Amino acid sequence: xxxxxxxxxxxxxxxxxxxxxxxxxxxxxxxxxxxxxxxxxxxxxxxxxxxxxxxxxxxxxxxxxxxxxxxxxxxxxxxxxxxxxxxxxxxxxxxxxxxxxxxxxxxxxxxxxxxxxxxxxxxxxxxxxxxxxxxxxxxxxxxxxxxxxxxxxxxxxxxxxxxxxxxxxxxxxxxxxxxxxxxxxxxxxxxxxxxxxxxxxxxxxxxxxxxxxxxxxxxxxxxxxxxxxxxxxxxxxxxxxxxxxxxxxxxxxxxxxxxxxxxxxxxxxxxxxxxxxxxxxxxxxxxxxxxxxxxxxxxxxxxxxxxxxxxxxxxxxxxxxxxxxxxxxxxxxxxxxxxxxxxxxxxxxxxxxxxxxxxxxxxxxxxxxxxxxxxxxxxxxxxxxxxxxxxxxxxxxxxxxxxxxxxxxxxxxxxxxx
Amino acid sequence: xxxxxxxxxxxxxxxxxxxxxxxxxxxxxxxxxxxxxxxxxxxxxxxxxxxxxxxxxxxxxxxxxxxxxxxxxxxxxxxxxxxxxxxxxxxxxxxxxxxxxxxxxxxxxxxxxxxxxx
Lengths: 418, 118
Prior knowledge:
Chain A is mainly alpha-helical and about 425 residues long. Chain A has helices spanning about 5-10, 10-25, 30-65, 80-90, 105-120, 140-160, 165-195, 200-205, 210-215, 215-230, 240-245, 255-280, 305-330, 340-365, 370-410, 410-415; strands spanning about 290, 290-295, 300. Helix content of chain A is about 70%, strand content about 0%. A 3-stranded antiparallel beta sheet of chain A has the order 1-2-3, with no helix packed on it. In chain A, strand 1 (about 290) and strand 2 (about 290-295) form a beta hairpin. In chain A, helix 4 packs across helix 12 and helix 5 runs parallel beside helix 12. With about 120 residues, chain B is mainly α. Chain B has a single domain (about 1-110), classed as Up-down Bundle (Methane Monooxygenase Hydroxylase, Chain G, domain 1), CATH 1.20.58. Chain B is built from 4 helices and no strands. Chain B is flat and about 70 Å long. At the A-B interface, helix 3, helix 5, helix 6, helix 7 and helix 12 of A face helix 1, helix 2, helix 3 and helix 4 of B.
């Protein structure tokens, strides 16, 4: 209980201090634990919500730049106050429930959509010491929380009593259940490499090498399937504006719509963070150990609090880059058709991810006795080989398809002139 | 271990309360003037024709079925992946045989033309 303890691990220090204070007030220790947990959870959730408000501004500003506009720039410096104006507008807007809607389900759906994203933050390691809980089945927890989002969307679509909403919900569910397979399979790759399902453990085991160098193909598959899971363009068939207007949230207005919008943005950011954690080392900073920077024998000592803050900044930067890539894809790709979407998953991503998983498992076993650099090079080359073989197979089939279709595509006169 | 799940449970409760608070606040401050035209179901500005709970393609069911098989089997792969480093090579190959059975199922569905969107 001194300044040094605080500097070494501020979160643990504060929670121990609070616990001691509450027990000192003659509270039973179980209740004291619950109160300390509640304070910690409130801090984390409020941080997530404030960050969500900031993300609204980021999204609007970035899409404006992609479309050669300025974006919000009137309210506050660089339009930073704009999201607060948006929230006030959403809150004081009249909330309309359409005729014939299933009222209970209709009202639960936006709450569930927000819950499915917020509970992901319970396992998100922001830094080596700042995390909600270091669950030993965090990877499974992530998949389970994702399923709640699917449920929210089908509930919203079904209860709105609207044809567009129902169609959007069915498309979204087809999308989400399909792309869950490659996502879960590529989640197994960091699990194999790190030998643990805890997200903090996966991050810790990337101290020597980031998994993107061991499994670049796995990273790409995970990124694509998480974009699909988010229902963002090019997989945004659930809210295809030109066909079904707004899809599952067409009948929602005011703050209920606000929750769908806010949870979509936070979901995208959180998945950017997961790509960072699983493949780019999460809070790991190159050369940064628990007591400072180590460049060979040259050591720059840092207090624990400095290391923790640097790690948190590193995680945020990685998550922001992941989020930015997701936005980049969203605003530069046209929407694909539903048959293309399903074919891309079932005929390409799923077989590829299963082959990749088998190769990773066998190579991990075969190369486990060798030094790290041989292991790394072997894994990287195997990924390149699988990618190259895939591209060759695709090229072969594309050529055959073109040869089959070419004579039919041209009118007889054009063919004769040749 | 128990504390971890207590934390998750408390997180879930807070996670449910936080989205409800703004909704309740919005219900208190927002105007409420319903009328039949405002509340009618949206359908491109015309009146809704027929039942809103329309029939949908049966093909969604097929994809859901294929998904179900895969999802259950990938859950079985998690313990295998987690204990991979302790397993003998034979058990690793057995896991791959299991994936092979999965792929056979996928190939069968594919050859039957069930993966085509018609």
